[in-house]
Please model this.
Amino acid sequence: MPRLWTIPVAVLALLFVVSFAWGLDQSRTRVQMENFLNNEYQRSFYDTLSQVRGLEVLLGKSLAVCGDSEDTRLFAEIYQQALAAQSNLTRLPVEGIAVARTTKFLNQVGDFSSSLLRQSAMGVPVSDEHWNTLRRLQNQAGSLNNELHDIERQMEQNGAHFWEINQLIRASRGAMAASPLNPAQDEFRSINREMEAFPTLIYDGPFSDHLQRQEPRALGGEAVDQERAREIALQAVDRREGVDYQTRVTGTTRGLIPAVRVEVIGRGGGRDDRFTVDVARRGGEVVWFLNSRPPGPEQLSVAEAKERAERYLEERNIKKMRVTYSVRQGDTVTYNFAGAQDGVIMYPDLLKVTVALDNGQVIGREGYGYVMHHHRRDNLEPAVSADQARKKINERVQVTNSRLAVIPTEGGGELLTWEFRGEAAGNVYLIYVNANNGRQEQILQLIDTPEGELTM
Model:
């Protein structure tokens, strides 16, 4: 009898093992599928978020267009951005009228911008009625942007998977269920988030890959040896009284501007300084430096720090530089200085100076733009007057200031322009009109933050 039970027991044991293995394999497969779906939905959600942010910014810029070639390019970008946002939105696991109405809103933005694109190509300016519609669409895109950010925040707080996004959207009672031309703004939560990823300071770093091959224009003269590089580094850093500073060469760098790297160490005065300085191997210009010491509690005002930054440049015989913009980060302020020649601002000649607010010491300097572009320009007389250029600006923009400025182009060149600062529909813009042919070249939207003015 015992032998008769042996076979059934063995079979049952085998079935149990097989079932357990099958269940384990199914569980792993399910987890892998969940991870795959979560990653796909996550990518679609963040692509949608990025595109709606961009759509809001582009619609804001459209309020400042004035019947020029810039209009055609801008409306084409709005059309493409709306289509891309719609495409990614439909990939999300969202059911019912919620996504349908939002998709309809994006469709309407795309259709409307396509219509304005055709009118612009025929030279027809934006009418008052169309301008008001653009303004409403920008507000609606902003509301949708806020609601998407609210959903993102809930996902992060709750640790939810992205296939659960439908429940979060229903819980938020928000924009995805809003009507296409008047998304219920009273339902939305107002959050203080940036409207576009990675905003930058005005003309901060106009370098793309092909520009990396340009020759630095401010470098000349003979090669600098290590001893001379140490002397230059010591003179460049902002040394405190009563502190003993020593220098040593730590290496060399290649890349865009080959340099000798020098370390400047100051001991005493209650807090050590440790500067890292890059000195260009040809010509000896200081490319950048940074003091690694953490600033203490704030003792100076932003205005006092600005005076200190200006005095620092004057003491080192770096003249004809004007503060254009600034940004505050913690207990430091970074000032953007642009070159000036014959009263014309040279935005490509960018030099950034960072001041610590505890004692006014300059703890950072970055001069890639200055080293790459600084030189004397010819032909700075505009062929188009400020009044003539002003006529190229949308009449709805209230201009508050104008000046001549040289700006960089995407192709690595430069343009003499009239820079107009103006306001429209509660937004602040910088509008650049070519000072030689009167063509509108660029529109930037300014965002005022506690840290400083940012541009998109």
Summary: The chain has a mean pLDDT of 77. The first helix runs from residue 2 to 62.
